[in-house]
């Protein structure tokens, strides 16, 4: 697989990967993955399949895709949207109306974080495409996302039998941080967390041209397609560096969710229990 996002991936390879688990086909939504069935460091325990799903924006979900959410294999009735109002307005990607699905707004960044100056700094980091640049961005996500992430974690605490999906725009950065928090709380080994993150490189490939077209409206990327494509990168090593950051700067996932999300030890214990199961319990 390409490591810098600049070269297109082989279409046959992409088709093969996204046609199989953990990818989940939902028409109109890209980069959908089930975070279940990952082994944990606990003996004979895996993350609960069919419970937590990550994805890119659901704004363009089709009628067939909406029906798919209700099928027995998914039963998704709650969607958490990590995007901000200025972001949706800028890209004309409003919140869709999906029958029997409760969409909850949980923006990571406030509206003022989308000022021209702030966005210019963010885009400059994205344009570099380096692990160091992404870690700066992910540190900002951790600093600002506590309330949003806490809302999702409380859903896990209180509704262990209600499958949910969470997403940002690309389903890579804010979504990737949230996925890492969930998997760390479930005691999933770092290798699998990094592997899951790296799959976004494949999951976003079908939208490659759409991403380039969207970013071409930004001055920084208008004459620099390579810079835009670097935003597609999701290296295994980047998530490794993020997990090291989470441990070194934030004291680990449990300390982070206690301090930034307002959760207690009891909450964390219940969340961990609700995220996992024994393989023998699978129907």
From TrEMBL:
One of its GO terms (molecular function) is phosphoprotein phosphatase activity. It holds the Pfam family Y_phosphatase3. Coiled coil: none annotated. InterPro entries: Prot-tyrosine_phosphatase-like, Tyr/Ser_Pase_IphP-type, Tyr_Pase_AS, Tyr_Pase_dom. Residues 132-189 form the Tyrosine specific protein phosphatases domain. This is Tyrosine specific protein phosphatases domain-containing protein. It comes from Pisolithus microcarpus 441.
């Amino acid at each position: 697989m390409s490591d810098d996002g600049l070269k297109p991936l082989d279409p046959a390879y992409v088709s093969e990967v996204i046609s199989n688990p953990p990818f989940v086909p939902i028409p109109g939504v890209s980069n959908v993955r089930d975070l279940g069935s990952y082994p944990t460091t606990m003996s004979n325990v895996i993350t609960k399949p069919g419970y937590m799903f990550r994805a890119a924006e659901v704004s363009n979900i089709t009628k067939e895709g909406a029906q798919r959410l209700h099928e027995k294999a998914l039963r998704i009735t709650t969607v958490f949207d990590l995007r901000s109002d200025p972001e949706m307005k800028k890209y004309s990607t409003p919140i869709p109306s999906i029958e029997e699905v409760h969409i909850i707004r949980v923006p990571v960044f406030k509206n003022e974080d989308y000022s021209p100056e702030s966005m210019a700094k963010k885009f400059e980091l994205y344009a570099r495409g380096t692990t160091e640049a992404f870690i700066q961005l992910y540190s900002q996500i951790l600093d600002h996302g506590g309330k949003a992430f806490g809302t999702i974690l409380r859903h896990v605490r209180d509704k262990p039998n209600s499958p949910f999906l969470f997403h940002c725009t690309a389903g890579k950065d804010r979504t990737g941080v949230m996925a890492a928090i969930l998997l760390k709380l479930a005691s999933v080994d770092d290798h699998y967390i990094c592997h899951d993150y790296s799959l976004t490189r494949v999951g976003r490939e079908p939208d490659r041209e759409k991403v380039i077209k969207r970013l071409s409206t930004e001055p920084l990327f208008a004459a620099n397609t390579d810079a835009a494509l670097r935003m597609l990168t999701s290296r295994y090593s980047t998530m490794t560096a993020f997990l090291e950051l989470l441990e070194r700067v934030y004291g680990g996932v449990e300390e982070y969710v206690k301090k930034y999300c307002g959760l207690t030890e009891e909450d964390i214990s219940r969340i961990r229990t609700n995220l996992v199961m024994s393989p023998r319990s699978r129907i």
